[in-house]
Automatic annotation (TrEMBL):
Regions that span the bilayer: none
SUPFAM superfamilies in the cross-refs: Spectrin repeat
Tail spike domain span: 122-380
Name of the featured protein: Peptidase M23
Coiled coil location: none
Lineage: superkingdom: Bacteria
């Protein structure tokens, strides 16, 4: 169960209850919690209440903050500022207000970075430089300290800064190029940003057909595949000293690899070309001038290139709310997805989680976004084909089992018919026997009645004979006298 709290200050003091999970108190009527690790990983909470909620029309964007607390586990699952408010009137005449809150990583959009000449720096030092610039421009509650950083670069990188928001800088200069996960961690009243190559743990809670998997979709995206690339480096400086105005929409020449690549400005992946044909793309290394380094970086890019992006989207039942043997599905943790009618069992990370605090047992998950290389692709095809064979075997075995069941059913029906015939004959025999018993009973009753009458007649005759005998004795006695 979840409680929603409202703060009119950034210090998390004097909370007001917007939604109470128990039978009393204020209520919201709709909600969606969206937890994410994609990109900057900014999570959101959207909720709606009607005019009966006492905080209707009393919440303002930016200066009000929303917190969701799991009251069962006494754990915060969301905290952020109100970013958007929508008021609505339905055709029925009812009024409602919908609010969208975004978590604290959105504070990174409140500052900008300024130009810094490309300099060799570690990932940790570069991110610290970015956060230092951010912290100088914002209030205390929007500031971040650098936490754990274990993402490493690919070597000889020059890192510079341009005129962008801090959020866009981190995304484009670090996350898009090096991968990894940016996570927010709060210790006391201090927010830490961790930049991690691996995040989360392996969970034993399954996402399994017939257990807690309601629906599943598996997407394979190969739209970003290049079999031939043209590596380009930094802009070549214009030394012509011309004063011609060229406007804002123009291109500058860039450093390329012809000098060190036999006059060719491109690099091929022969294995991919043989498999998929030619598909050419530009790969830019904006801080590189040396053609040899540019070629080496291009070859490394081809080697590390991912062919496809695999993503599962599933609807699942939150078993952890129903059975204490299972843990709650947690953002960042990895789970075994088991739906072998779609694909073999594979363990993937939860990168998005959506649910309503009003129905927390129903969750929608995005799992995976796992990039795979050529060998992975080939293994993928083999696994799919093998899985199809297994599914067909399973289906064939199922058909055979069904045929056997049908045969057994027919045999059972025949046996049942025979038994029914026997029962029918037995019923006829029973009926005849019942009639005979009835007739015999009636005969016995008649015989008993006749016997009774006979006994009574014999009794009467005996009485008469005794009386006659007594009279005869009396007469004899008189004659003797």
């Amino acid at each position: 169960m979840y409680r929603v709290l409202l703060f009119d200050n950034p210090n998390r003091k004097n909370p007001k209850i917007v939604h109470e999970p128990y039978s009393y108190g204020e209520k919201i009527k709709d909600s969606e919690v969206y937890l994410s690790l994609n990109g900057l990983g900014i999570s959101t909470f959207e909720f709606t209440f009607n005019i009966n909620n006492k905080y209707y029309q009393k919440i303002e964007p930016i200066i009000h903050f929303i917190q969701i607390v799991d009251v069962t586990r006494n754990k915060e699952i969301f905290y952020g500022r109100v970013a958007k408010i929508t008021n609505k009137m339905e055709a029925s005449g009812s009024f409602s207000q919908t609010l969208l809150a975004e978590d604290e990583k959105a504070f990174l959009y409140d500052s900008v970075q300024t130009y810094m000449k490309p300099t060799r720096m570690t990932v940790s030092a570069y991110l610290q430089k970015i956060l230092d610039a951010h912290n100088k421009q914002v209030e205390a509650h929007k500031q971040f300290r650098l936490g754990e950083v274990n993402v490493v670069d690919n070597g000889d990188l020059l890192r510079g800064l341009g005129y962008q928001s801090t959020a866009d800088t981190i995304k484009e200069k670090l996350l898009d190029r090096l991968g990894g996960t940016l996570t927010l961690r709060r210790v006391g009243n201090i927010n830490y940003l961790d930049y991690l190559s691996n995040y989360g743990v392996n969970s034993e809670t399954p996402l399994q057909l017939t257990k807690n998997l309601k629906s599943a979709t598996r997407d394979i995206d190969i739209s970003e595949l290049f079999t031939r690339i043209v590596p380009v480096g930094q802009d070549i400086e214009d030394t012509s000293n011309t004063d011609i105005e060229v406007g804002t929409d123009f291109s500058r020449p860039k450093y390329t690899i012809e000098k060190v690549n036999g006059g060719k400005n491109y690099l091929d992946d022969e294995a991919l070309i043989k498999k998929f044909g030619l598909n050419t793309g530009i790969v830019e290394f904006s801080n590189v001038k040396d053609p040899s380094i540019l070629k080496r970086r291009g070859l490394q890019w081809l080697k590390d290139q991912s062919l496809m992006l695999v993503t599962w989207t599933v609807e699942a039942i939150e078993l952890g709310l129903l059975d204490k043997r299972y843990e709650l599905i947690t953002l960042g943790n990895s789970y075994k997805v088991d739906n072998q009618f779609i694909y073999a069992v594979e363990r993937l990370q939860v990168i998005e989680k959506k649910f309503s605090i009003l129905e927390p047992q129903k969750v929608t998950l995005t799992i995976g976004s796992k990039k795979k290389k050529l060998t992975d692709y080939q293994n993928e095809i083999k696994a799919i084909q093998s899985n199809l064979v297994n599914v067909k075997k399973f289906a064939t075995a199922g058909v055979q089992n069904i045929s056997e069941l049908i045969k057994r059913q027919e045999e059972f029906d025949n046996d049942l018919s025979v038994q029914s015939s026997k029962v029918s004959s037995l019923e006829d025999l029973t009926s005849e026997l019942s009639t005979t018993v009835t007739e015999s009973t009636e005969a016995f009753k008649q015989l008993a009645s006749d016997l009774t009458n006979t006994v009574e007649s014999v009794g009467t005759a005996q009485t008469d004979m005794k009386k006659a005998l007594d009279d005869l004795i009396k007469r004899v006695e008189k004659l003797e006298k």
